Amino acid sequence: MEADPLYHVKQLFYQAAIQEAASQSHTPSDDVSSLHRALYIARSHLSLTPPSTSSAQSILSPFLSSDSAPLSAKAVDAFASYLADEEKEAKVDELRDLVLEVEGNEDEIEESTVRVIASSVFILQGENEEAVTTLNEGRGKEDLECLALLVQLLLSLDRRDLAQTTYNVAKKIGNDSIFVQAIEAWIGLKTGSRPLHQSYYFYEELYQLPSGRTPPVLASHAAAHLLLGHVDEAKADIVEAAQRDGGDKEGDVLAVGTTLGIEGYAEQLASNAPQHPFAIDLAEKSRLFDEAASKFAITA
């Protein structure tokens, strides 16, 4: 069987070794695998903290120069512009058009990439229903990355029942896939009890990899430790994560650190990752508290 030329960069990207994935070399060519490799490297740049939007667009520029530019490259380029705060609404509309245009494309990676990128932007826009629809249509119903993103969204909406149903679909497609293992881990963190141990084992495997101790992995490893009652181990993970490149600004690192009560992390979360769900929740609770407290203010 011929080796997958994308295997290494894909593994780095999906194992959250983002910095290493972003530093992979790339030489543009007419070979479709060259495009797919560029997409993973560009997406890695967009996953950095903060995202390196100019680097991502520079990697994609050779593929965007022709009149028949790949839709996947257009989608990732639009995502980069969106993250750079360039005409956000226009970029959202562009991605909607790309989703319609890509449906039925012969290249499976082309369609799945457009659906994942578009749905990611829809989620950032708060258009969760549109994201669910996008991930559930066309090849999205059979693509493991689309299904994994759908599970993340459903768990964030407290729809564990639908997340479990989606997991069952994904398991039939690729039982040994890293996506299926990741989905199991996410559901375990959300559910607790026995599945929580499976979550810990998954993140422990990533943690032990040569390139595994990245801020996102350390944050997840810490969360599993915390839910298992291993507070000191969780704190050690967060301290290590904060010392890694970009870790002190990584939303998940700061969120877990805040939950652990580490001094200063709540303030750092609010300033460095204000759009993180936990930061938004804390800000809303703080607003409600101040509103309630003002009704009981002691007058002189």
Automatic annotation (TrEMBL):
Its membrane topology: Peripheral membrane protein
Protein localization: Cytoplasmic vesicle, COPI-coated vesicle membrane; Golgi apparatus membrane
Residue stretches spanning the membrane: none
Predominant localisation class: membrane
Signal peptide stretch: none
One Pfam family cited in the UniProt record for this chain: Coatomer_E
Keywords: Cytoplasm, Cytoplasmic vesicle, ER-Golgi transport, Golgi apparatus, Membrane, Protein transport, Transport
Highest taxon above the source species: Eukaryota
Function: The coatomer is a cytosolic protein complex that binds to dilysine motifs and reversibly associates with Golgi non-clathrin-coated vesicles, which further mediate biosynthetic protein transport from the ER, via the Golgi up to the trans Golgi network. The coatomer complex is required for budding from Golgi membranes, and is essential for the retrograde Golgi-to-ER transport of dilysine-tagged proteins.
Family that this chain belongs to: Belongs to the COPE family.
Name this protein carries in UniProt: Coatomer subunit epsilon
Organism: Kwoniella shivajii
Source species taxonomy: Eukaryota, Fungi, Dikarya, Basidiomycota, Agaricomycotina
